[in-house]
Design goal:
InterPro entries: snRNA-activating_su3. The protein is α+β, with helices and mostly antiparallel strands and 357 residues long. Helix content is 36%, strand content 19%. The chain contains ten helices and 13 strands. The relative contact order is 0.12. Bound molecules: zinc ion (ZN) (2 copies).
Length: 357
Amino acid sequence: MKAIVPSGSSNLLPLTTSDNKTNKKSSTKTKKRKRFSKKNNYFDESYIAKVEQLAKIKQKQEEDKASVRLHSFNGGTKSHESGPVIKKGDKIKSLKSASVSAKVKSSSTLDNVPVDFPETILCFEVYHNKRKFLKTQEFVVLGRQFLTEIKDKIYCLTDEIMKKVGQYETSGYFLIEDVFCNDTRGYSSIDYSKPILDWLENSKDDALEKWEYIVAGELQQKQKDLLDTEKKQQLPRFKAVNMQSTRFCDIRFRLGAGYLYCHQGDCKHVIVLRDMRLIHPEDVQNRAAYPLITFQSKLRYMKCSVCKIYRAQKITVDDKWASSNPCYFCDVCYYMLHYANGSLLYNDFSVYDYLHE
Ligand SMILES: [Zn+2]
Ligand SMILES: [Zn+2]
């Protein structure tokens, strides 16, 4: 550092870069620094600021590293404590099952219900209500479990919004093949399948026409021309059952086929039963731990458009002082921009709570 500023030199900058490394061992730092700041205060300040900035970044990186290590370490110990029966030697061998058993801990609390044999395990996928090809969750569920057990574990933003506005209701159905499985547990549950079944009953021709189109798509007409067949499509015999009294082993389904989950009026998701197998000794043997979440898509959050640091908590629309429309705000920035001495400055805009994307 000493030679960064050779005594009497007025040409500071080039020397700073070239001599920096070779003279680190010098012991007369203070002397030099005095001279340095005297001669060129501007460069000194910007240099120190830069170093401080880099030190901060470095520190942040170290903290991140430490937290990641801590996290994975915790996961490991958790699984060791809570896993089914994991011998010491097996700990590394089955990483995947270890991570699964870590999740079991959080969901199953203290219950320990042995699994009946033979039991089947099903892989159940849920897709996004709008981005239809985006898988949001994946579960492992037992064949003897009721469909409501998995419904209660499905996460959807619509549920959260309805809870916020106090209009949440438990009604909903799974349409699997030709069976509507209605959730009728709630006191004021609505049978969503009823108007559909009524329409099928009362408008048979209309329904059949639509069904033919659904089944064959645009190829229908071409096939008809080619085969010259008068064979009429048959409408499936749709029926309805209660979800809470229907188990996976009670229903007929095809692996990999897309079925429907509908809730909160008309929030619809594709669901897929992807795989089926017998339970294995390495699977979690506690029935209360199922349905196990094996995949959960990462939730995306927007940052506050003002400070660009904190997660957005509010979103405004048609807000004349906002930088964009719609505009995201953290609570702090929102109140700083819209309130003075506790009173709202203007109200010709709409504001909503923001949860996530
Ligand atoms: Zn939904
Ligand atoms: Zn902010």
